Structure formats: C-alpha cells, structure tokens
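Teaching assistant here, posting this on the class forum so everyone can see the example we discussed in section. The complex has four components, and the goal was to see what a joint structure prediction looks like when all of them are supplied at once.
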Amino acid sequence: MAKRHKTDSRPTIAEIAQIAGVSIPTVSKVLNGRTDVAQQTRERVERVIEEYGFVRNRAARALRKGKTGLVDLVLPRLDDEYFLPILEGASQVVREAGMRLVLTSTHYHSEEDAQWINDATDRSIDGILLVLPTEEAIERLEQAGRPFVLIHNQGGLLNMAPSVRITSWEGGFVATQHLLNLGHRRIAYIGKTSPTRDAIERIAGYRAALDAAHLPIDPQLECAGEFNEIDGYHATRALLQLAEPPTAIFAGNDHQAAGVYRALHELGITVPDEMSVIGFDNLPYTAIMNPPLTTIHAPRLELGRAAAAILVSLINEKPPETARVVLPTHLVERQSCRPLAQQAHRP
Amino acid sequence: MAKRHKTDSRPTIAEIAQIAGVSIPTVSKVLNGRTDVAQQTRERVERVIEEYGFVRNRAARALRKGKTGLVDLVLPRLDDEYFLPILEGASQVVREAGMRLVLTSTHYHSEEDAQWINDATDRSIDGILLVLPTEEAIERLEQAGRPFVLIHNQGGLLNMAPSVRITSWEGGFVATQHLLNLGHRRIAYIGKTSPTRDAIERIAGYRAALDAAHLPIDPQLECAGEFNEIDGYHATRALLQLAEPPTAIFAGNDHQAAGVYRALHELGITVPDEMSVIGFDNLPYTAIMNPPLTTIHAPRLELGRAAAAILVSLINEKPPETARVVLPTHLVERQSCRPLAQQAHRP
DNA sequence: GTGAAAGCGCTAACAG
DNA sequence: CTGTTAGCGCTTTCAC
C-alpha cells in the first residue's frame, strides 16, 4: 500500500525526481516504460513512486501529448435498456485500450446546440462513438476532424464513414421466413413508419421473404409504429379489427412485441395457440415473457465492442482492418410461434 | 456557423489574440466572462472567436485550474437495467453543472487492482459517484482525498460519508403490509442471503410488518436468494414444496419476481388467482408482465440526480444542503395481488 | 483596461 | 544512460 506523504496534495513528478535524486525526464522515462534507463536507476525511481503513491497527472499529460485518453459515447437517450450492452461493449474495449468512456445523452435535443459537437472540437476527447446519428450530426462530425465511428448509422448508404451495423434486412427476412415455414400466410409487420434505416431494412426483409414465397404484400398488414410498446399495442388492436386478421405478427422490435402481447391478452387471444408473435433485438426480458418470445437476436455487446475497437485503431492511427462492419443477427426460437396447422382459428 | 480556418488544427487562444489584435490574457478574460474588459474589445474578440470557431482546450484549462470537469460514475456492472435511470439522473445533473460523466464498470473485479481508484488520485476527475460500494472501496476512497458520494451505500451505518439511499426498510414494510391488508397470513420473502444493506433492510421491514400484525416469523418462508431471476425461480419452487405453502410472495426485487412468475407458470399456478406476488424496484418491464406486477417503486432517477447534485456541491466547495439523503419508496399497485378471500386455495 | 511574465505537470529532442 | 532545455494552451498575478 502506498504510504501517504505529509502534504495533502499528491506528489508531482518533480518531487519524485528530487527524492530519488534523478532528473525529471528520468522519472518520466521510467513512467513510460522506456528502455533507456539503467536498471538500478529504474528500481530506485520505482521504489519512490510506489512509496509516495505517485500517479501521473492526466491533464498535464493530455496537454503535452494532445490526447486525453477519453472517448465520448453519444446516445440519443438513456432510458432504453437496448443501449446497455452497447455501452458495456464499448466500455470494455475502451478500457482495455487504457482509455475511458465519457457518456453523453442528447435526448434528441436540437443538434444545433449539441454540446458534444464542441467536445469533439475542444480536444477534450480523442474520438466519438455516435449511436443512431442523424444525417446532420454526421456532417458536423466530419467537419470536426476527429475520429469517430457510427453505431446504427441512419445516414444514407453513400456515407463512407466508419460504422458498425447489424443485418436488419436479413433479420427481417429470417423472422418472416420462420413464420412462413410454420405455414403462416397472413403475416403482419409492425414498424412501418419508423424512419430509421434499420426499420426500413426490416420491412424490406419482410417483403422479400413474402415475395420469395410468392405471397402478395397486403398493405393492411403493414402497420405503422415506432419502436415502442404502445405502438405495438395499437397496431395489434387495429390488426384484429381487420376482416381477415393475420395469424402471425412480426414486431419490428421487442418493445413492440410486448405491446402486441398486451393487446392480445386484453382480447383474450393466447400466444401461440391463436397467434404467433416474433420480435426483434432479443432484450433480456423477452426470455421471461409469457410465453417466452421468439425473436431475432441483435448482437448489441459486439456492436459496442466492434465500434470501440475501430475507434481505438483510428485514434492510434493504425488503420482498422475494416472500417465498416456489419454484424449478423440470428433467430432465437422460444415459444411464441406455432405451426399454423396447430393454431386455433379465430371466428 | 463557425468558419473553418485554413489550417487543419484548431486555433489556440494565442492565434485568436493575435488576429483580434489584443493580448492573450485579454482573450482569456473574455472567455471567462470577466468584467474588466472594454465593451468594444470584448466584442471584437468575440467576433474573432465566433468566426474561427475557437473552443478552449480543456486539457490546458484543467492543468492550470486543477479541475478537469469530469465526474466518474463507478458501477459494479453494466448489464442490469436497474442502473440505467441512475446513470441518466447523474448524467443530467452533471451536465447541467457543465461537467461530463465518465463511466466505469468494475465487474466486481478485485478491488485490489481497481483502476478507478487511481483515477481518483491522478486528478483526472473531480469527483466520484460510487454505486453499491464495498466497505473496502469506501476506505480507499476516503484516503484518496477527493470528493465522492455513495449510492446505495452498503457500508456500515456508522459511515458518515456523503450518500444517497432509498427507504428499503419502509419498502419492505409497506409491501408486506399491503399483503397483510389483503388478508394474507402466510407471506414468503425471497432475498434473505443477499449481503447488501438494502436486502437486509427489506427483510427487516418484512419482519416488522409481520410483527406489527402479531404474526409469527416462519423461517421456512424466508428464502435465500440473490437479486436475480433464477434465484426467484428456485425459491418459488422450494416454497411450493412446503407442507403449507404461502399464499403470497414478496420478492426482494423485480428480477426475482420474474423468476417467481416463471416458476408459478410452470406449476400451473395463476397470479393473482392462486398466488399474490409483489416485487421491488418497479423496473419498466414489470408494467408489461402478465399480470402487471405490483411492486415497490425505487426512485432511481432521483437517486442519480441527488447523488450528482451533492457531488457537484462538494466539488465546488459549496457545502451541500444535506450530505446524506434517503429517498422514499412507494407502493405501485398493479394486478398481481388479490385479497386472500378471493384467492383460490391450492390442495 | 490591458499586457508582460510566470508556471500548472508532463514529455520530446537533443546534447553530453 | 542522464540531464538540460523548451514548450503544450491556458489562467493568474501584477505592473503599467
């Protein structure tokens, strides 16, 4: 354990140097693990450092080196557990690289006075991880001239910025195909209106699967809805009003699926006996839903890790292996889907 | 919109000074809103700052002033949505104070090599928010001599460190009393073994409510269990093996309650027709459980806000109004509890 | 009101 | 191998 020195303030490199009877740069060299220090000198310095519990002042180092060791993670909001594993993954990798993660929540505030854009400029951070960025945010970031990586890039496809995404199209395709394989023909999709690219890809995947099965696309079965519980609920209520309701519902994400469950339960329709439901994301609570929800797994931890890894490479000016990665989704079968043949018919 | 200057690098205060035709300290004064600058000079400097999109270098300022504007939030882990509103609340207040939040997840790593304790020492942060700290962590933090605030202090009651907690005892009491008022007499509690102070208070509240109702404490009804789903599940399975099973279950937290639901569902026991269940925390998903879970609301956003507010005061050396706050919990009635009289009896 | 001078703690370049 | 010198960009006395 480090011994406390009499003064309240932490020792500086200068004091350590004086006590060890060497010059300041020598201490600095020891601190930075440089080889051009005599073994004996190194040991003496190390002993003093240990004894006085010396720790480098980061601000001074940052000023000198032009790097702060800080990475900013910018999220639209902090009240959705969807983001948690992304946070965790990014945090892990950033820490492994000896840096720290600064958290920013934009709350969808006007980009205009977005503080984080200044943070990108004032050299207080080395790089930025931007989750669900808008087109405008990306533009401003490009001008700031600091390394950044996009997570769930919502910008145009032409954008060549480093980014990490998931296979939303394939996810939508696979989810729909799963229902198709179970014999379902009238399959609804919820989440049509969401302007995010992931939402657009999901519905495109849904349509492609239908198309591959030579099934027509029924606009009545494509419901509006943002990625939240209440929209899943309303869409389901509407769906059940239809002359010919669907036998299966593909919810654009798990929150919506929870709303689907709630609406169905209110109407006395049981899952999967009378309705098959599939979600997207594989949030933890879907495993304990009743019945457990079949869903598409979105590799969120890996999303955070991959993005952070690219950013760290960028910061260290080692070109990353690939600056644009797409992580695969996969189907998680649980108990919310059933073959149409075994499913009871509604009047 | 700030115009870009020809050079790639951001302008420094020196360049701004030169362009505006004033000295460096004058620019600094303008930047810091000092009054001893002629109106005309100020405007000229401001114009140049605006035009060149100048932003202060934080590292330099931090070095000079000894403050970094960074607050470290240290969490045991990042994979439990319980922490999310705490994060959000802390983030809000920290940002309102013009500072930024650095995130650290200890993953319950040995305190020995805890990096965050160094961060506390190296002047790279101005203060620390410690969630669910161990006794040892607190001791080390006290030695580090930097402001800190504890959230969910698990340390001894004697500890006088600034802290924010919730009324776990009252929560336990109210939850139990609610069940008692409903006519239940055999009420189980899950979460006995958890060593955290909140767990201890909850069971104490449970016992006190029983005691107040002149009911004996049956050790068989006090189940072991950490605050997770699986332990709630196992405890429930065990409870149902009892010769005389409980008619109501008080789960130490919502994750456990989810496990209770799962076990009950497997056994074909319906909630609340055959078993009343109450949880603790009021996590978002409890509202969409089936049936929606009655639970004790833990004000987590406020926890984060309050802790951050105290820390900000401490950092600014304004003594906070109170350095030790306890936030009230309250009952959220939903549909998982029913009067014993209306509840079906199990064989 | 304004600016010259000093220095926060550290690292990099180079001379010895 | 070691130490001297020179700043990184900013804020702070303190003369003028």
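For the discussion questions: DSSP finds twelve helices and twelve strands in chain A. Residues 12-14, 24-25, 28-29, 31-32, 56-57, 59-65 of chain A lie near DNA strand C (CB under 10 Å from a C1'). Think about how each of these relates to the inputs above.
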